[in-house]
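User: tokens in, sequence out, please.
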């Protein structure tokens, strides 16, 4: 039987096997969730006027995750009213966010059947997440990395306190998130893997990538450009 559509009705031969389901899109027609055959859902968060992927989360529905590095126009699924500050020392990108006791960051609509992880980098100590302090897991460049593990039964998260934070993540405890920041018209400036280990991407004046560094400042890759026939140094 030929594969065909009629309105919202799909007709196909019984021997066809669906390989992927594109579950949801944003208002710019970017895919925000897909599920491959016999696999777990993958969620994608977009920012920078919906032009760049800022997070990819495996094994989580898109309404159960959030991420912001406070860089662009969006909030990555979080809700807050304060204004991020430009900071050349920010852990990812060039901005961070200072909690002051009245500008809390929240995420409602969570599934009470799931447990969650909230993580972030802090300039000082732990923020308060649903009334509890986090556990410091790492430190780099004068920042400290904290994680909060929240048991099932909650339906919202509130991040509060009096600290400056960056790279704020929320995802189910059985999911894995990778996240990214960008410099518009240049390219990706940082990426953080599922363990929040950060890589930084450096560019020359022509917008060409020249080096990749880890979060401790160690150069892990360099890239050189030469014209055809040009003698190598």
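Assistant: Sequence out:
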């Amino acid at each position: 039987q030929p594969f065909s559509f009629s309105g919202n009705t799909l007709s196909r031969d019984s021997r066809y096997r669906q390989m992927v389901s594109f579950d949801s899109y944003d208002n710019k027609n970017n895919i925000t969730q897909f599920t491959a055959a016999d696999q777990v859902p993958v969620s994608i968060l977009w920012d920078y006027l919906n032009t760049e992927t800022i997070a990819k989360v495996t094994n989580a529905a898109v309404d159960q995750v959030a991420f912001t590095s406070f860089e662009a126009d969006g909030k990555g699924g979080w809700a807050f009213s304060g204004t991020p500050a430009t900071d050349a020392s920010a852990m990812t990108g060039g901005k961070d966010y200072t909690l002051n006791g009245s500008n809390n960051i929240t995420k409602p609509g969570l599934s009470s059947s799931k447990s969650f992880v909230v993580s972030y980098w802090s300039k000082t100590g732990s923020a308060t997440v649903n009334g509890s302090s986090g556990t410091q897991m790492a430190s780099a460049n004068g920042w400290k990395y904290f994680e909060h593990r929240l048991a099932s039964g909650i339906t919202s998260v509130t991040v509060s306190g009096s600290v400056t934070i960056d790279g704020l993540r929320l995802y189910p405890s059985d999911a894995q998130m990778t996240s990214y920041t960008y410099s518009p018209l240049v390219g990706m400036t940082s990426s953080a893997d599922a363990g929040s280990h950060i890589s930084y991407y450096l560019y020359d004046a022509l917008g060409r990538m020249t080096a990749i560094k880890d979060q401790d400042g160690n150069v892990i890759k360099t890239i050189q450009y030469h014209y055809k026939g040009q003698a190598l140094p």
